[in-house]
Amino acid sequence: MNILVPFDIQPVSERAVRATLELFGDREDVHVVATHISDAKADPARIAANEIESLGDNYEASVEAEVRLIEGDPSSKAVIRKAITDIVESEEIDLVILGYESKSLFDRVLESDTTERLLQNHEIPVLLVP
């Protein structure tokens, strides 16, 4: 099972990763792909990716964290939505886990119906972690 956890550098993202590992970390057949979507190689995002991968050291599931560079404005709902959809397709994702809180990056994305589009266009489950 391939699980996508998009992250930004916020506590809500850490909660989403921790919840993912608590729910699925004991399974060897699980591959967690934690992805920060950006238009630049940001050092804080790289540090967060390293920390996410180190969290996976205590679990059976494999954890891969990355900073995925995109073209376009990373604050654009459409750009983020497309990036998530591209990852779902290219990585053969089975489940998307999103951290969610007011005024977070994913709050803005969710307001633009990303969850609904993932469910309709890809028939993929989406789990929201507060």
SSE inventory with pairings:
Layout lengths: L1 E5 L4 H14 L6 E8 L4 H13 L6 E8 L7 H14 L4 E5 L5 H7 L2 H9 L3 E4 L1
Parallel strand pairs: 1-2, 1-4, 2-3, 4-5
Report what the structure shows.
By secondary structure, the chain is of the alpha/beta class. Helices cover 44% and strands 23% of the residues. The mean pLDDT is 83. The longest helix has 14 residues, at 11-24.
Task: Give descriptors for this structure.
130 residues, 5-stranded parallel beta sheet, 5 helices, single chain, Rossmann fold, alpha/beta
Quick overview:
The protein has 130 residues and is α/β, with parallel strands linked by helices. The chain has helices spanning 11-24, 43-55, 77-90, 105-111, 114-122, and strands at 2-6, 31-38, 62-69, 95-99, 126-129.
N-to-C span: 23 Å
What is the chain-wise order of helices and strands? EHEHEHEHHE
CATH superfamily: HUPs
Q: Structural class of the helices, strands and pairings?
A: alpha/beta
CATH topology: Rossmann fold
The total count of strands amounts to: 5
Helical segment count = 5
Over all CA atoms, what is the radius of gyration? 13 Å
Top-tier CATH class: Alpha Beta
Q: Based on Cα principal axes, name the global outline.
A: globular
What are the segments in which pLDDT stays under 50 over at least 5 consecutive residues?
A: none
Query: What's the assembly state of these chains?
Result: single chain
From the coordinates shown, what is the CATH architecture? 3-Layer(aba) Sandwich
Helix content: 40-55%
Can you give the mean pLDDT?
83
Strand content: 15-25%
Number of domains: 1
What profile does the largest beta sheet have? 5 strands, parallel
Can you list the strand order of the major beta sheet?
A: 3-2-1-4-5
